[in-house]
Design goal:
453 residues, alpha/beta, OB fold (Dihydrolipoamide Acetyltransferase, E2P), Rossmann fold, 3 domains, 9 helices, 32% strand
């Protein structure tokens, strides 16, 4: 049956995809329905049509899932941050199990992989220790919030229920002060306006917040004074929780948040997170797991898998969170990190924790493995971004050093499936996969996978 834009049809939802969109089929033709849950019957309007699929918007629920719940966020339907608040948490975990199984078995072709149940998160609300707030001038108005789903239109945001409550507290005060000022917001179309973003990071164990103003150029004297006055007022209002404030200047027209120049306005420029006897320092721009309690579980899993190894190569190391756990079990670790501020935190963290069996290298993993890494490694641990490992990294692992074991930590089942297939061509078999829910209220899922020769 041919579907045209605007057509109204009734669909039965059979499954969901990695974007938490319901999937229905009409005469073999796929229709994606954002916001629909498995087992629901919905009346929809077709809003997008492609050669092999359509996208539809729910008009009415004819049969609702028993797992459907009321979202907590008042801007949930528009915001691009979460996509599963309309599902009960037990159902979210079930969906994530099916997503990781689909990626590993169907895409990765691992027919006999041992996939453990998803480990639920300790916290399902208020867990996230990082917020990137967009400041934009759009349609004649200044807006503060998150991007709408699939666009750069900013959805005004007063609070976010998945954020650490301390971040919400600081942001509420910051928002009021900034909107009462006449500081200009960034206009993407014209490339004008001062404030681009606010980044807020929190330490769960130390109850501290760092704030960074991301601005498009050097502020003039009046603007600098306003930024300073707002920040100092904020410090008085939310003390002792605000640990420090920084200004980062990013004049580029691209989407990358950070510019090359950062200055401290006042206070500390790092946070400290504690994992038992390990203290980890990280800066506001460093990669650090956003769900700290769940990250601690993940580090323990990785360290347990690697505990019989003597020589470890760790790629995409960040500030050394997992490195510290690996170093406690192994003779020596070579840790590679590309982002220089994170690399500097990595070095500092090893020194401050008295860990002296780690060699840290700064550079892109795909470049470092060609020129700066040699010798024998029992195991390689990789924790790449969502895009997965560079092909040169996989080639180096499979053909050059050929360790007996590889631990792949993934936040994207699709790239995990892709990369594990390549490693399989080099003789590695997937022994087990342990998914963890690091991102409640979203369809994202983390996995720790062990591959062996």
């Amino acid at each position: 049956m041919k579907q045209n834009l605007g057509d109204e049809i009734i669909l039965n939802i059979e499954s969901v995809d990695s974007k938490a969109r319901g999937i229905a089929r009409v005469d073999g033709y796929v229709v994606f329905v954002p916001g629909a849950l498995i087992g629901e019957t919905v009346t929809v309007n077709i809003v997008e049509r492609k050669k092999h699929y359509s996208v539809a918007k729910i008009k009415s629920l004819l049969k609702a899932s028993p797992y459907r719940v009321q979202p907590r966020c008042e801007v949930y339907e528009a915001c691009g941050g979460c996509n599963m608040q309309h599902a009960s948490y037990d159902h979210q975990v079930k969906v994530k199990s099916s997503l990781i199984e689909d990626a590993i078995i169907r895409i990765g072709k691992w027919k006999e992989a041992d996939i453990a149940p998803v480990i639920p998160s300790f916290l399902v609300w208020g867990y996230r220790n990082k917020a990137i707030i967009q400041a934009r001038y759009q349609k004649g108005k200044r807006k503060l919030g998150y991007f709408a789903r699939g666009t750069h239109d900013v959805v005004n945001l007063k609070a976010c229920p998945i954020l650490d409550p301390l971040i919400n507290l600081v942001y509420a005060n910051l928002r009021n002060a900034v909107l009462q000022s006449d500081l200009s917001f960034y206009d993407e179309e014209r490339g004008e306006g001062l404030i681009r973003n606010f980044v807020l990071r929190s330490s769960f164990s130390m109850k501290k917040i760092l704030l960074a103003w991301i601005i498009s150029r050097e502020p003039d004297d009046r603007e600098y004074k306003m930024i300073s006055d707002i920040s100092n007022g904020l410090y008085k209002d939310v003390s002792p929780f605000l640990g420090g404030v920084q200004i980062n200047i990013n004049p580029s027209k691209g989407n990358f948040i950070w510019g090359s120049k950062t200055q401290s306005l006042f206070g500390e420029d790092v946070l400290v997170e504690r994992f038992e006897n390990i203290k980890l320092r990280f800066g506001v721009s460093d990669f650090f797991q956003v769900n700290v309690l769940q990250a601690f579980r993940m580090f323990e899993i990785v360290a347990e898998l690697a505990k019989d190894s003597k020589h470890v190569l760790e790629l995409y190391s960040g500030v050394g969170s997992m490195t510290a756990f690996l170093a406690s079990f192994c003779n020596d670790v070579v840790a590679v990190e590309e982002w220089r501020p994170a690399y500097e935190s990595l070095v500092s963290n090893m020194t401050n924790n008295g860990i002296n069996n780690v060699t840290a290298i700064c550079g892109k993993a795909e470049d470092v493995v060609k020129t700066k890494v040699s010798g024998h490694f029992d195991i390689v641990v990789v924790d790449p971004p969502r895009t997965g490992c560079h092909k040169d990294v996989l080639n180096f692992i499979g053909r050059v050093i050929s360790p007996k074991r590889v631990i792949y930590v993934s936040c994207n089942p699709a790239t995990l499936a892709r990369d594990s297939k390549i490693l399989n061509e080099y003789g590695y078999n997937m022994e087990n996969a342990m998914p963890l829910d690091m991102f409640p209220q979203t369809s994202h899922v983390e996995s720790v996978v062990l591959l062996e020769k």
